[in-house]
TrEMBL record:
Biological role stated in the UniProt entry: DNA-dependent RNA polymerase catalyzes the transcription of DNA into RNA using the four ribonucleoside triphosphates as substrates. Largest and catalytic core component of RNA polymerase I which synthesizes ribosomal RNA precursors. Forms the polymerase active center together with the second largest subunit. A single stranded DNA template strand of the promoter is positioned within the central active site cleft of Pol I.
Entries under InterPro entries matching the protein: DNA-dir_RNA_pol1_lsu_C, DNA-dir_RNA_pol1_lsu_N, DNA-dir_RpoC_beta_prime, RNA_pol_asu, RNA_pol_N, RNA_pol_Rpb1_1, RNA_pol_Rpb1_3, RNA_pol_Rpb1_3_sf
Entry GO terms, CC: RNA polymerase I complex
Enzymatic reactions: RNA(n) + a ribonucleoside 5'-triphosphate = RNA(n+1) + diphosphate
Matching CDD domains: RNAP_I_Rpa1_C, RNAP_I_RPA1_N
Localization annotation: Nucleus, Nucleolus
Keyword line: DNA-directed RNA polymerase, Magnesium, Metal-binding, Nucleotidyltransferase, Nucleus, Phosphoprotein, Transcription, Transferase, Zinc
Region called Disordered, residue ranges: 227-271, 1413-1528
Name under which the protein is recorded: DNA-directed RNA polymerase subunit
Record's compositionally biased regions (Acidic residues): 245-254, 1473-1492
Main location: nucleus
UniProt EC number: 2.7.7.6
Amino acid sequence: METLFLKLTQADFRVYSAAEILQLSVKEIVNPQTFDLLQNPIPGGLHDPALGPCRQDDRCESCGQSERNCPGHFGHIRLPVPVFNPMFFKTLLQLLKGTCLYCHRINLPTLQLQVFSQRLRLLHLGFLVQAQNLSEKFLNSEQAEETVLSQLEAYIKDVLKYGEKNEASMSKNLLTEIHNTMQKIVSTFSRTKLVCCHCETKNRSLKAEYNCTIVGTLADDKEIKKRPSLKPEAKANNVPSEEAGPVEEVEMEDSSNAHEAGQTPEIEESSVEEMMGESHSDVIAFLKSKHRRCILTPNLARDHLRLVWKNNKEFLVNLFPFLGKIKLSEVPTDVFFLDVIPVPPVRFRPLSVMKDRKFEHAQTSNLANVLRECLTLKELMFDYSKKKATEETTVQGPAITDPSESLTVSMQKVMTLWLRLQARVNVVLDSDLDNISQDKCFGVKQMLEKKDGMFRKHMMGKRVNFAARSVISPDPYIATTEIGIPMVFASKLTYPQRVTAWNVHKLRQMVINGPQKYPGAVSVIDEHGKNVKLSPANLTQREALAKQLLVPDISKTGSKIVCRHLIEGDYLLLNRQPTLHRPSIQAHRARVLPDIKTLRMHYSNCKAYNADFDGDEMNAHMPQCELGRAEASTLACVDNQYLVPKDGTPLAGLIQDHMVAGVALTVRGRFFTRQDYNELVWSAMSDSRNQILTLPPAILKPYPLWTGKQIISTLLLNIIPQGKAPLNLKGKAKIPEKSWVSMSAVDQSILPLELSALESLAMGESTVVFRHGELLQGVLDKAHYGPSPYGLVHCCYELYGGKTAGHLLTCLGRLFTSFLQLTGFSLGVGDILVQKKANKKRKGIIKKSTHVGKTAIEKLMSSTGEELNERNMLLFLKQAHFSPDSFKMAEIDMGMKGETDKIQDSIAKSIMPQGLEQRFPNNSLQLMVQAGAKGSPVNCMQISCLLGQIELEGRRPPLMLSGRSLPSFQPYDVSPKAGGFVTGRFLTGIRPQEYFFHCMAGREGLIDTAVKTSRSGYLQRCLVKHLEGLKVNYDVSVRDSDGSMVQFYYGEDGLDPVESTFLKPALFPFLTENLQALKSSYRKDPWPSDARNKSIRHRWKRISKWNSQAKEKGLWVNRDSSFIEFCKSNAAPNLSETDWTQVVKDGPFKGRALAAEKLCKAWAQLDAEEKTSLKSKQLCPDPVMSLFLPHSQPDIMSEKFHHELNVYCKKGFSKVASETSQEVDQKCFKETINKKLVKAMAHPGEAVGLVCAQSVGEPSTQMTLNTFHFAGRGEMNVTLGIPRLREILMMTSDKIKTPSMDIPVQALPGAREKAEQLRRHLNRITLDKVMQSLKVKITSKRLPSGRGYNHFKLIEARFKFLPQKDIAEFTNLTLKAIVSFVAKRFIGNVDIFFKKEITSQKKSSLLSSGKLRRLAESSDQGKATAEDETAGDNSGLADLADGSGGTEDVEEEPNDGDAAAVKEMQRQHDTQEYEGEDEEKEQVGAEDDGEAENNYAVDENEEPETETDNKNEESNHSNDDSDQEMSRIEDLSQEDREMVTDAKANSFVHDFTFDEKKRRWCTVTFIYDQSRLQLDVRMLLDRAVRQTVVHQVKGISRAFLTQELDNGDSVLHLKTEGINMQEMFKYPNLLDLNKIYCNCIKTMAHTYGVEACNRVIIKEIQSVFGAYGIMVDYRHLSLLADYMTCRGQFDAFNRGCIAYNTSPLQKMTFETTMTFLLNSCVSGMADTLNSPSASLVLGTPVSVGTGCFDVLDSFH
């Protein structure tokens, strides 16, 4: 008998037509009531029994099945009038905009239309290259249109004659091209002129309102654009009589006729022409209406689209492929409208019951609302048709007016209800589409999306059976691979075991024991699949079933299955959430412990799960098949998860007490008697089944004694598998040698050796030596049995496998526990006490520290040139405190912190460790810290020395408005203790103020942890959803689930990070020493026996020869391209010096030298043969790995590894081999390493994408949320942590928070001076940076004006500048230029500030809107752009100053520099957003904010903007200057006179004077009408001074020079804050432009291409992790960068870039489910179910890992 096997292979997305819905439906729903008074479902209601039973005891009227078995049946609701389909509303609007309402054709020229159509057709068939060539080939042709169209047709036939490509093989590149083409067509639609290109008819401009209606507006109507929109109800109730003209009446007639017929009007072939004619006349009436605004009703739009379908069918099918898949519909465009709404079966709309009350499902409520609107609309339409019929039969006379009036009112009511029906239908799909109704429930969109949506809650994550959850508790005696299971779990969890002749006796006894006696069974499954439950009370039944276990069933093959209890040895998958990386789920062997209630786990697994025993809970899952058990035991077992995939370092290791015990056990001088020795060895190996080998004693007389080191050796020799060579190891302990020296060297004369000599010669305890499995020297601590790389356990894992390493950890844990019970360990007060001498020294340092605050402030003030006294110091601190940017305050904090750090260091040195009463190792606290058991030197310092400086976000505690840090300090107190420097310690206690500071830091840590969890969690989710389909294929390449190539070799060398940890040159000596043990692991060759290709050796020789030749020449000359050869040849054009210095200002070569443009154009003119002839004859040989696969031939490896191996064999191998007693051979070593290399290759099926996502996401949880690091004057400020990681991985913008460049300076004579000059030129200089002080004096004066005398306010502002020598340190500007700038530019800017403040005050006083108030605040902050300031100088702003008020519409400028207002408005408009969306909005807001601030900059190269036309002011004061002033001006030079004239030309400037000799000061007197200037003038002037830019280079704010080491040489580097690469290209003779670098990935991609972008991604991620000491393997970062650039551009991990993924289900399970579902429907995409997400959604095995292959087994 054959078994039918059905497998899902593809999921399509399409739309049901109205006819299909009617076919699916079993009943029309007409009643909005659902239940009657007796709670029975009403026939015709939404819970009609025909749709399925809604109670357990009901039967379905359609299929007769019970509630459990009935699949459910659809119903339908007929709408009295058609409505827009809300799912396709936006698509419909775009399509209507691109069509002509008169001739019903697509409004594109015929040729363009055909090219677009055929291009889409070719793309859908898979012809990517041919489709890309169409536009270039035919659109730009100068031939006649008919000729071009015939050529196009011939070209398409020629392409298609070779057969169509496979449509299912959709790739990212193909999808990208389809997406871009469709976007281009849609954007062409939106840009299309309203005049039709075919019939030259002028169409109306269409736009949507409230997602309900489409309004056509006359194009030349300017006023309509400013007319405020009405709400649908208000608009419908106030429709003018002319708007309800012929359009609506025609529409309503059709609708009422359809209503009377009782069915939806359908198209029949016989009446097509007649209907087309009627539809055309109706649409013409809409088009030619004289009204400014006309509503395009759904029936008119539908009729129009039917005619468009007839004219442009082929184009529409290519543009919207889903139209070609619609069934049972003559005109597929009808799916853009709804006549019939499907009603889902009852079982998918269940009632929710709470406290005996029933609540309807959200969908039921929405559908009931639609039904109510339908019934009301039908009644109104019937009333309307009745009145209309009455009017037609009545004799028209002058006295009869009432019927026509009532007819208009009825029409308005019908229109109102039509709009309400549209809104109700919208809510069924998406409740967010209706922003007006209050009584709305979740729509289909809300049920699908977000965490609680159907995809993420019920498809991606599912509830499971056969699982247990409990608190975990530690057990030091249990094995590392075991998990202690309580009896209550063991008797509930079952495993279905198949009965065989080998296990029947055991299973029979279990069946007889039954479900209540352990070990028993719960049920028996027979051959037919029937499950027979065992009765706890019926022993006879159980015995009968036990006897029949092996009795076969004649009618069915197979055997019975017994669902038995969990027993010891069963595998369980243990998981602790959050599951951040692969080791968060591991397989443990069950060990049933009868008297416990919690899960028992070994200490060593804590790090893998990130667990502790303070109440953590874990989940246990029991695999239910042999395949699951096999995978658990071989792949997920704890022993095989010893290394973390992130960087190949160990995860498992002993902790805390075991560390202390290990050091105490192995320290020199620790001896044991025979009894203790045997007892300790036996306690460690009590589960050993073999005879335990013991060692002879170290001391024989007076009685035998064994050392602690010998106990470790005994364990190791017994644990190493038989037949394997024992371990040889030389390593370092964590405890440094100096700690032991200070303990032993009581008299320094005893040890004259230096420390370095002592470590190697005197056999120090920090050097650990194992020889032949015996510990000869050194102390074992965290470095060897903790989670540390290259220690004892790690080496055993590498040589003998995970099982041996796990057993060693188990035995060491038991040994150390027993040893501690024998000796004990305690920590007392004596371990933290300080000697009197050291204490005295500490007090002296603290006493001196009270003055360092004043010293630090004086150092900072010395740069300003001010007099150092108390008053100036207070003023300096106050200015810094109230400065809007925190730069000055941050500088003060850095200066103070530098001084307090010195105090802290000196106190710590005086006490730690020499000043303590007890020294290491007698000091238990020091022993714990040094061994790595617990604590750190900082903890010791806080206990015995001082707490030190308290920091919040890298800064000192902030000041309150009063200038105090706490109320108990004076304002602006400069003493360190007022700034959070705690000199107290825990030993002697801390003061209340110090305690408060300490609590502030503790609270910051709590908040930081809570906030960063969600940030890093979302980041990891984005990574996982993008990378989940990446796996290694059988051709060793890494591909996505759609087969698109990402890497040819995983991580560029194909090696697995976990398997290749010892394949490093530094560890070759260890492998040499343990070659025999290594050989026994790789006895069998991984290659076929005949796979010995002689050409490989020859190829390696060629590569070696080429490398040596290239090295000798000093350059990789042979890597030069043919273009570079052409530039060197005589064929290149002659270039002058000006060609190299002149910069191209526009075009594709913008920013490059003119010479580059000439060379590129000359190269483009060469033909292919000429280009080929210029190629270098000596080509670099291809890498060996590009020609052969490593598992196909020996000696196939990367060039780098091959070189390192050869270097070691030549230089280091012989020395190591001579020191070891084993016979080792160099050839044998190479072969063994080669075998190890092949074994370390990443296996096919390996889910490298997921591992990569976890390896980047999991470490991000360890990083703090420190967004910004302030570095001070001499260094760059950088963004750190998760914010920077999000910038790199989740944003494709070039607007990053701290952009920077780094360019080396060429080592030329005089380069330093030129670089200094360039540095000063690049600095952004605001006016406050060159000012020493600003003094403002305000007086009132009565002056004559037009109609008499007026009171004016005179504002005298005196600007004092810094001396020229101080200015010259940071800029090239002179004082003369600065004074000139003030006169010509700054004065005008001050006036703009004043007027903007007046404007904002008027807005805030006249209007009380919160939105306007926020905009006013933004104006206060002065973040308006320069364009806004200068554009209205001569018009609007002058009027505003006169009090005439502004007429500008505030609503049109919501983003007036206020990012907070933008975000608030976005929140108000869209309350249902994703976390990822919120973050992107923050970034957008920040970018806009930054742009506003930078654009305000006034560059010195611009022409001065003055208020010369500002003559409308009433302050026309008389200009009767004294003779003395006139003579003073005449004494000035011509240039100075012009400057004064320019300043005083402004009507608001009364006087302008300046220092004529040194230009150290200038005074400006402003004059304003006193009644109109009620402002805080001093504040506004301060703000103007801070924000006015005197000089800047675009994009760069600061530059500085640093010395950096490069290959051992010190190289001068120019670093900038901000990016402007084009500016740097102007200095090729000073800067090394070949090494220019910037941290903006987008900029590097645009400037240098995608390969440079790839490297920048890797470098930037490494620098982010490196700041926190986190290492992530290069292979993960390489894969990440390759994925982000595999489409040829920079892609981020956000929903914008996942749109190019070819799996619709993968996109839907990420974010915005409805959007991706709609796009998949419209584009006709199919999911081939290859992605993991698609497999999970449909319940099929994931094709990654062990799911990517099947095993064929022959039963013969």
